[in-house]
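Question: Hello, beginner here. Any chance you could explain the protein record under this note? Any guidance would be welcome.
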Amino acid sequence: MTFQPESEADPDEIEARVQETVADNDVVLFMKGNRLMPQCGYSRRAVELIGQHVEEFETVDVLPALPHYREALEAESGWETIPQTFVDGEFVGGSDVLAELEERGELAAELGAE
């Protein structure tokens, strides 16, 4: 199957979806693919790191409207790369930041697991 970007995506709708998802979830990961089938190594690593500490967290597959998600997420976080993790409405970082927090023993607390 060939990936077909969603051509009908409305940038305003994606922006509203990002804001709503960040506001409505304790932990949310915007990623390429989904929790069961990450579509890039960085997304896979982020899922693994978060999953070590938090059983329930929301994931959003950005691939169906990648350019619109990139724009909306950058407006929300000031960060242009994906994946992006938000905890209690606050931007935490991508997989590299999650890995650094894990190395320092701070990731569980950052995710609200302690």
